[in-house]
């Protein structure tokens, strides 16, 4: 029997109505529940409603996946100038993760009838079904094609059984165990641990706007990563000789960022459209200079009438950032090409001599050698040229207003914790803790003066 569109609409409406109390004057069905619902006092009734809502959601997921599978089969994406069924799903207000899961389910519905029946009947969530599909893909990647064909049904049955009572993460763990058990006794020349064809990486945005990385690398690639991070993740003593306050995961993150900074500062890296990749910052000029006189006017405007993005700093890939971070980015990052907009007119900041010229940076390296924060000394290639008196406050881009600082101490010690820097009478940087007290000489002193008088 073929279900018509009208039948499908009726089905969804009836399922929704089953979840609602009696109709009220405010409307019928699910709309009445949301608009004028009375709290459910009975525990069992509440649990029944929750179970019914889960089944309804799961059935809707199945309908989306089945419709996507059918759309691909009849060539709908091509007729709509789309690549595949996932592009069809992207026409709906779905999160990227939901598109990925529904797309995988659509691809596998014909080949996995038992899984299709479970989710169609509302007994298995989309996340659990996706774990079964990804688990099967993992097992297949560890076996030859003929061997996998002989065990595919048994593996699917095993993973489906686990999915009925375990979490998606546990289902994937079972898939990894099965892959090890079913791997051939005489593996091919390249074992899975050393096979770069199995490498995967994923970059996602969190709800807070942060960026999360995940990677599955072969052994040699992992060795390269660990080797590159080794010297960059060693603890850095505090100025008073105390322990590095960063945890090991924090030092790993800082080391990875140092690698990215060095890559972006390298002049011979690959280009895109003839342009060397660089960080792009767009920021209104009044914000950067600290004279944003339009802020009060904007507060009086209605939100709907204010064009989004007109008055906020933005990065090229990740979007809006705070004014504080934008100001810090404008403080001597050599890999940054910053663009200001004054009344929507772009202005290349490099023309304002905000950044240290090659000749000036050479002089800085000759004086500082590397990060000058007491106890650090990271190489100059890992450092920023920090304006002691900030550029936005009228600070000049000159040798006597610059100091080399690694990213960690530039961001954490100076911009976050409030350490003070000055150039002493000896023409070298001196540092003072946030709480005040004696000035501390820089890490790389090229003078024989060791008294605090040189800091005055």
TrEMBL record:
GO terms for molecular function: endonuclease activity; nucleic acid binding; zinc ion binding. Residues 359-411 form the HNH nuclease domain. InterPro entries: DUF222 (IPR003870), HNH (IPR002711), HNH_nuc (IPR003615). It holds the Pfam family HNH. Gene3D superfamilies: 1.10.30.50. Coiled coil: none annotated. Belongs to the Rv1128c/1148c/1588c/1702c/1945/3466 family. This is HNH nuclease domain-containing protein. It comes from Gordonia araii NBRC 100433.
């Amino acid at each position: 029997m073929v279900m018509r569109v009208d039948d499908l609409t009726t089905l969804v409406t009836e399922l929704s109505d089953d979840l609602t109390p009696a109709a009220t004057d405010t409307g019928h069905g699910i709309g009445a529940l949301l608009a004028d619902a009375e709290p459910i006092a009975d525990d069992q009734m509440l649990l029944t409603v929750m179970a019914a809502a889960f089944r309804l959601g799961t059935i809707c997921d199945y309908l989306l996946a089945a419709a996507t599978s059918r759309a691909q089969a009849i060539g709908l994406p091509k007729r709509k100038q789309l690549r595949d069924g996932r592009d069809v799903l992207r026409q709906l207000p779905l999160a990227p993760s939901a598109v990925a899961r529904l797309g995988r389910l659509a691809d596998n519905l014909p080949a996995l009838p038992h899984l299709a029946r479970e989710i169609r009947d509302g007994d298995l969530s989309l996340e659990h079904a996706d774990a079964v599909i990804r688990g099967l893909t993992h097992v297949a990647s560890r076996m030859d094609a003929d061997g996998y064909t002989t065990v595919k049904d048994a593996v699917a049955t095993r993973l489906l059984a686990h999915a009925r009572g375990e979490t998606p993460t546990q289902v994937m763990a079972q898939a990894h165990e099965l892959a090890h058990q079913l791997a051939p006794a005489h593996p091919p020349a390249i074992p899975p641990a050393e096979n770069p064809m199995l490498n995967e990486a994923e970059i996602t945005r969190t709800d807070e706007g942060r960026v999360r990385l995940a990677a599955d690398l072969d052994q040699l690639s992992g060795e390269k990563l660990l080797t590159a991070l080794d010297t960059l993740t060693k603890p850095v003593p505090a100025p008073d000789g105390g322990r590095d306050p960063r945890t090991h995961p924090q030092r790993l993150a800082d080391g990875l960022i140092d690698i990215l900074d060095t890559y972006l500062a390298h002049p011979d890296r690959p280009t895109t459209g003839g342009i060397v990749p660089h960080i792009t910052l767009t920021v209104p000029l009044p914000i950067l200079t600290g004279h944003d006189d339009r802020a009060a006017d904007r507060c009086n405007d209605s939100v709907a009438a204010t064009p989004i993005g007109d008055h906020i700093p933005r990065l090229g890939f990740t979007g809006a950032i705070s004014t504080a971070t934008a100001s810090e980015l404008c403080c001597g990052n050599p890999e940054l090409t910053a663009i200001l907009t004054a009344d929507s007119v772009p202005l290349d900041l490099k023309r304002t001599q905000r950044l240290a010229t090659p000749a000036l940076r050479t002089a800085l390296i000759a004086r500082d050698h590397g990060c000058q924060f007491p106890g650090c000394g990271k190489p100059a290639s890992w450092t920023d040229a920090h304006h002691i008196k900030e550029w936005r406050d009228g600070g000049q881009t000159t040798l006597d207003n610059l100091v080399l600082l690694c990213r960690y101490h530039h961001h954490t010690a100076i911009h976050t914790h409030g350490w003070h820097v000055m150039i002493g009478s000896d023409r070298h940087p001196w540092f003072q803790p946030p709480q005040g007290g004696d000035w501390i000489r820089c890490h790389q002193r090229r003078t024989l003066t060791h008294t605090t008088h040189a800091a005055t």
